[in-house]
């Protein structure tokens, strides 16, 4: 399900170069920028309820041998409309998992409008931050020296 959100177009413009880089590298890539947690983005190889591709994006660290998402979001991408729609949010250190859309017992698709608004705003801030922190899509196209 891809609902129109306030920041959907701006998030798309910021994230699309990263998504193209991810797709060009087999559907996943770990971006790095000095002093920051790695940023992993992955094409999850499934679609939302409307058929739009879903991507996952996360910062992470290791704690006691466990991968800790800090945070992890999934979002669908509507290339035709030029928008991104948040789907899930996870923050392991706080035990938080939020899902915007779900199928009800009767089969209908339900969604939490307030959560969608909050996650859209969070993704807007996060997408700005990753660029300001020096994460670059071009990194995925650099050939490592032999």
Brief overview:
Helices cover 25% and strands 38% of the residues. By secondary structure, the chain is an alpha+beta fold.
Strand and helix layout:
Layout: H1 8-24, E1 28-31, E2 39-47, E3 53-63, E4 66-78, E5 83-91, E6 96-99, E7 101-103, E8 109-111, H2 113-132
Antiparallel strand pairs: 1-2, 2-3, 3-4, 4-5, 5-6, 7-8
What can you tell me about this protein's structure?
- By secondary structure, the protein is α+β, with helices and mostly antiparallel strands.
- It has one domain.
- It is 25% helix and 38% strand.
- The strands form two sheets. A six-stranded antiparallel β-sheet has the order 1-2-3-4-5-6.
- It is globular and about 45 Å long.
Kindly state the number of beta strands.
8
Query: What distance lies between the first and last C-alpha atoms, to the nearest angstrom?
Result: 44 Å
Q: Helices and strands, in N-to-C order?
A: HEEEEEEEEH
- What oligomeric state is this? single chain
| Number of self-contained structural domains | 1
Overall pLDDT = 93
Largest sheet: 6 strands, antiparallel
So how many helices? 2
Class by alpha and beta content:
alpha+beta
In percent, how much strand structure appears in the residues? Answer: 35-45%
Strands side by side in the biggest sheet: 1-2-3-4-5-6
Which regions contain 5 or more consecutive residues with pLDDT less than 50? none
Rg over alpha carbons: 15 Å
